[in-house]
Write a structure and sequence with these properties.
2 domains; Adenine-specific Methyltransferase, domain 2; Rossmann fold; seven-stranded mixed β-sheet
């Protein structure tokens, strides 16, 4: 089920984000379902487009999840902290903030948003010690005209937001729920079968595990929409299980036939 809605622009720029998908292929998204589940949350473009009343949102990136939780729990504090970052923004301030590792709440949420908006190309990258190491970029805007944190906070009131593996979240889906799955686009034998996902590797074995989880969910009566690489090795994972494979202008979308 979706709420009465005004447009919400995602607050993060995210590699592999699906703003383009929402703009071009919103007609593929159902309007009627029970709970919305997104196990690879990232920038949340589809979530913010649908604005479901109940949702289960997850990702393995703890800083990303902290940003969503911060907005949900104290959006005013996040805005106040971003205003401070905006006033202080400079090379010195950027690198000081980058070195900090706040553990919870508003400081962690605003740090993530500030770095995302002012780092090079909105990239999230960490070193082997788990430390964010992207240099400052060319953009200086910390607060944007499109920000609507109060509206986001109200929407997130109905969200269960977790740091979790995708399979755990998919296995919680029940008949009538909707899963949107947008994994890293690993294909068999490409870069030895894995790509970097946050600070972890997303392997070909993870692609196989994802397909099995989505097939189990489909068999429970869950509505599924997934995007993935338009590659034979990916299509073969879903060919014999009643999924409708639709090639879009950039990627393949996987939809159940029922």
């Amino acid at each position: 089920m979706v709420s009465e809605k005004n447009s919400i622009t995602p607050f993060l720029k995210w590699a592999g984000g699906k703003r383009w998908f929402v703009q071009r292929h919103a007609d593929l998204l159902p309007s009627t379902f029970n709970r919305y589940i997104e196990p690879f949350l990232g920038g949340g473009s589809v979530f913010f487009h649908l604005q479901p009343k109940q949702s289960l949102l997850g990702d393995t990136n703890p800083d990303l999840i902290a940003a969503y939780r911060g907005i949900k729990e104290n959006w005013k504090g996040v805005v106040k902290s971003l205003q401070y970052h905006s006033r202080q923004h400079s090379d010195e301030h950027y690198y000081e903030v980058r070195e900090r590792r706040p553990k919870e709440g508003v400081p962690r949420a605003s740090r993530m948003i500030y770095l995302n908006r002012t780092c090079f190309n909105g990239i999230f990258r960490v070193n082997l010690r788990g430390e964010f190491n992207v240099p400052r970029g060319t953009k200086d805007a910390v607060l944007l005209d499109t920000d609507c944190f109060e509206q986001m906070s109200k929407l997130l009131e109905g969200a269960d937001i977790r740091i979790a593996d995708f399979e755990v979240l998919i296995d919680e889906a029940r008949a009538g729920d909707l899963i949107f799955a947008d994994p890293p686009y690993t294909v068999r034998h490409n870069f030895n079968g894995f790509v970097k996902y946050n600070e972890k590797l997303f392997s070909w074995q993870d692609q196989e595990r994802l397909a099995k989880a989505l097939i189990r969910a489909k068999n429970r009566g869950v509505h599924i929409l997934a995007t993935n690489a338009n590659h034979l090795s990916i299509r073969e994972l879903y060919d014999d299980y009643g999924f409708d494979l639709i090639t879009t202008s950039r990627y393949s979308s996987i939809l159940p036939l029922n």
